[in-house]
Amino acid sequence: MSEKQNLHIALPGAAGKMGQMIASLVAEARDIDILAASEHPQSPAIGNTIGAATISADEKILGIGSGGVIIDFTRPEATMKHIEIAVASGTAMVVGTTG
Questions:
Q1: Do residues 35 and 68 lie in contact, with contact meaning Cβ atoms separated by under 8 Å?
Q2: pLDDT tens-digit profile of 43-62?
Q3: 98 secondary structure, DSSP code
Q4: For residue 27, which of 10, 19, 71, 98 sits 20 to 30 Å off, Cα-Cα?
């Protein structure tokens, strides 16, 4: 029997309200890891760490591939870019964007 692997997530909008909430929930979970996190280029959070990731302005890092999932609660225009990254990298995606 194979050992269960942790769920790997990429978190755009990591410094936003929902990003911070997701990060705090992940910190309590033993079987979920944040592998990538991004924010808009002007964010003061760039360079901070969240989980195992350093928050980056480069959205391309969100494409963590199969076995990973992008959890997106950003703005609709950003979500569209993240969908393109998910498709190109074969990364699953959950979208909770409103508005």
A1: yes
A2: 999 999 998 899 999 999 99
A3: -
A4: 98
